[in-house]
Amino acid sequence: MMKRLYIVIIVVLVFSACTQSSLQKKEIEEQKPLNTITQTSIILLGTLQDGGSPHAGCKKNCCKNLFQNPDPTRKVVSLGIIDPENKKSFLFEATPDLPTQMKQLKNLSSFAEKETPDGIFLTHAHIGHYAGLMFLGKEAMSAKETRVYAMPRMKVFLEQNGPWQQLVTLNNISLQPLQDSVTVQLTPNITVMPFTVPHRDEYSETVGYTIKGTNKTALFIPDIDKWEKWDTDVITAITKVDYAFIDATFYDGEELNNRDISQIPHPFVVESMEKFKHLSAAEKDKIYFIHFNHTNPLLNLQSEQAKTVLANGFHIAEYGMVLGL
Ligand SMILES: [Zn+2]
Ligand SMILES: [Zn+2]
Ligand SMILES: [Zn+2]
After folding, report:
1. Which numbered ligand comes closest to the C-alpha of 74?
2. How does 137-167 read in b/e, with b if 16+ C-beta sit within 10 Å?
3. Which terminus has fewer CB within 10 Å in the chain: N or C?
4. What is the CATH number of the domain that holds 68?
């Protein structure tokens, strides 16, 4: 009897060791990049709205299978910037997916020795855009003075409210102040300029960024109210850049059970396409829709809506895309 019990225990131990090592192997394979980056580039590290996908509590088809089988390409909106010449990398947004996004950025940076980027830029205090800072704290990696760039209200919010305050007092992060429309030189190849945009500003202001590389310039506006509420003309803004990553939270009213889309404070993709329809093919080619709600049909490139967007000459942001800067 005792002997049989020993055999059962040994079998269970061997089996669990095997499944663990194959699981670990799978995780490592998933994180391994195709190539490291050799020129200043933008890397798309996430394309989802704050709540991600699967979305907490969702019972619809969009997330049904993802609770059991998560899709490793479904990450909350984030851009990585790598300057190999100056051996620097930067992260835009600290999302709830920060651990894998930071690792992916490091893996793509052949020069990187440390696990954290040389700077993290925040757009605003909504969970998808800053809550990932928690992973830099004492309960997680206990980072050492990671530079976090924030606008005045955002900076005060982090300094004065727990648990973020503790990241500041323990020097896990080192807050770097930003000012509206003031350019920051990050490396000889990269400058970044924040600009305020209209959005629900409960805890902080909201900014978009202009990111300038050696050859190209990108516009990053993951969250904004309707284009008409912005004091800058979005079409003029697009003409000044080479890439425009813009808020595409919802595709149309049908996605929200035909609620009146004029009442939802985001530019719908159908509204943006209408606004941009007279742009030249070259201008449309700059536009990458990003920040997709879990319900957004653009997350499925085979959907009719995705085919329409692409046929109209626009891009749909995809996880892992690399664009020269
Ligand atoms: Zn958001
Ligand atoms: Zn869903
Ligand atoms: Zn937001």
Report:
1. 2
2. beeebebeebbbbbbebbbebbeeeeebeeb
3. N
4. 3.60.15.10
